[in-house]
Amino acid sequence: MSKKVDVLGIEFEHTTKTEIIYTLEKRIRDNKKTFIVTANPEIVMYAQRDSQYKNIVQSADYILPDGIGIIMGAKLLKNPLPERIPGFDLMKDLLTIANKEQLRVFFLGARENVLNKAIDNVKHDYPGIQIAGCHHGFFNEEDPEVATMVQESNPDIVFVALGFPRQERWIRNNAHLFQQGIFMGVGGSFDVLSGTVKRAPALWRKLNIEWLYRLIKQPQRWKRMTFLPIFMLKVIFTRKQDSRSS
Ligand code: UDP
């Protein structure tokens, strides 16, 4: 599994959710350290503006397409990706593996009350998981205390819910402290896990309009959506350039 699909400079893994879960399960068994980024168009656009962030994202072992925009972009670029792999779904699948294998999971990020509720739900729904530890997401990144706490908890999986670009930066800056483990930025997933934010119903997800549900529920996010048409325009422009040069 090594084919990559370039979408505006970010190299996505050409894989399905089933395949990547199989690979990750194997990497856990083999004690390999793994950095996962689930990138949406907003992340790709941000990486275009910030080369340091782009380098961090590109240093991940697997960059997966979170968001229908990436799938549409790859298709327009005539290099389609098999399917969308939402970060939240991947996190749930990893929780299921952790439950089965009694793995140690660290939860880093979100507001303290949200985090505590999320942990309560995890304890209830995945009783086999060993909670290696948790810490809210409002701390000073320069202070090594939190990273040391995560390191000393000896985790198999670390979910980092600090929102981008902070979560990917935190993982990159601290990865050297660990010999093994899965490290994944999960954005607002603890908010959903805690029940504070509702996920779109299955039909909306199936129709690929989860983003619309989010916009209706959290209209304050509309500004963050304006990047989507710009992303699509950039893809179309890149396609035109590519077809001229070939
Ligand atoms: N968050 C955090 N520390 C911060 C900023 C954000 O822990 O300094 C948390 C926030 O509480 C939320 C999550 O990061 O739980 C990400 O939120 P957002 O909806 O912005 O992320 P997205 O899913 O859009 O990447």
UniProtKB/TrEMBL annotation:
Example of a GO biological process term: teichoic acid biosynthetic process
Keyword line: Cell wall biogenesis/degradation, Glycosyltransferase, Teichoic acid biosynthesis, Transferase
Signal peptide as annotated in the record: none
Enzyme class: transferase
One Gene Ontology term of the molecular function aspect: N-acetylglucosaminyldiphosphoundecaprenol N-acetyl-beta-D-mannosaminyltransferase activity
Pathway given in the UniProt record: Cell wall biogenesis; teichoic acid biosynthesis
E.C. number: 2.4.1.187
Lineage top rank: taxon: Bacteria
CDD domains: Glyco_transf_WecG_TagA (cd06533)
The keyword Oxidoreductase is assigned to this record: no
InterPro entries: TagA_TarA, WecG_TagA_CpsF
Catalytic activity: UDP-N-acetyl-alpha-D-mannosamine + N-acetyl-alpha-D-glucosaminyl-di-trans,octa-cis-undecaprenyl diphosphate = N-acetyl-beta-D-mannosaminyl-(1->4)-N-acetyl-alpha-D-glucosaminyl di-trans,octa-cis-undecaprenyl diphosphate + UDP + H(+)
Family that this chain belongs to: Belongs to the glycosyltransferase 26 family. TagA/TarA subfamily.
NCBIfam families: wecG_tagA_cpsF
Role played: Catalyzes the conversion of GlcNAc-PP-undecaprenol into ManNAc-GlcNAc-PP-undecaprenol, the first committed lipid intermediate in the de novo synthesis of teichoic acid.
Protein name: N-acetylglucosaminyldiphosphoundecaprenol N-acetyl-beta-D-mannosaminyltransferase
